[in-house]
Fold this sequence. Notes:
The chain is an alpha/beta fold.
Amino acid sequence: MSTLRQRLPRGLRNVTGAPVVRADFYDRELERRKLWRRLETDHVLLLAPRRVGKTSMLKRMQAESRARGVCSVLVDSQGMADERAFVRRLFEAVAKEAVEGGDGAADAIRVRLFGGRLRAFIARFKSVELPGLAGELEAGGVPWEEIGEALSSALAALESPWVLMVDELPVLVTKLLRKEPEQARRFLDWFRAIRQSESPAPGSLRWLVAGSVGLDVIARRERLTHTINDFSLFRLGAFDAATADALLAELAFRRGFTLSEAVRQRITEAIGWCIPYHLQLVFQEISDARGERPVRPEDVDAAVDRLLGRGNRAYFDTWDQRLDEELLPASAARARILLRALAREPDGLERQSLGVAMAPAIPDPETRRGELSWLLDVLEADGYVAEDGGRFRYRSHLLREFFRRKEDE
């Protein structure tokens, strides 16, 4: 334990709600190094199922960017209503970072904006501070496309490198698709165009885009893959067995007790897919019920059973609710058919069996085949299922049991 104590970060706490930051952020050092290297040459599409730690990763990278000599902002697209809100929020975040950075970035951005295509509009607002300029331009009738293009061009022309991190962009794209598919296509075409625009200082501006539902999956369904083919794909997965084991040991150490190797192994086996969130949840349940005696392997089973009880449904209900948020109603209903069928089969099902389960909802074989293929892509990308040896299974034992119990109610 002394070696472990020296190797692991101080101050690690058991966090089961908000994204983890500072000392609570655990490991991912290799992934962060790879991502920073990738951003030296490419825009990156970060693909990660929900609760893997994608947002925590982005927050950690933003926090360490200045030490790397990089200016960065992080915006969350989840609550945005449309593309106008996206551009305005991005402009405001960049302006705030430029002002707080104190290295003259705000003045440099203003100079670039004055010299660009918005020159005639911006000249009217010489007294307006940079953080408020986006709203003034929008109120003055400047199209959101031009505001975004001008901002992108201004940043690309700066000598200091910038990384614009956008979380949950697929949620915004899905909202646009529901309003009007052509609106979503125009936005994605525009977004690609500003990434591809010529820059006086190549390599100074990079985009890091992430989402629980892969933007690649949405683009493939809507035949819009050309709008994202300039991204380098980076996949963030669950912890490996050694990292999950070390995290559990450190969490217990910080709480003032120990977990035996047998107990830690039982926890990882019960979870199956060792994402940080599920490790933290099970540990919390064990810790709260521990008492004074050592934790036994059978205590893990009892903790998991309590965790999946009706009183704790809020921990897992989001997996069911997000189907309605991310899919059209008919597709959400069909996805639940597949999830219910798989919940009844611990060993999983072949594609053909899943097609049979979906047949009452889609009688036509060709239509059913296409919808099944796409839904399996969505469910796999979003962390629900994985294909193994020609059979589809739940990634997470906890999630399978949640949907099984939900079906039995």
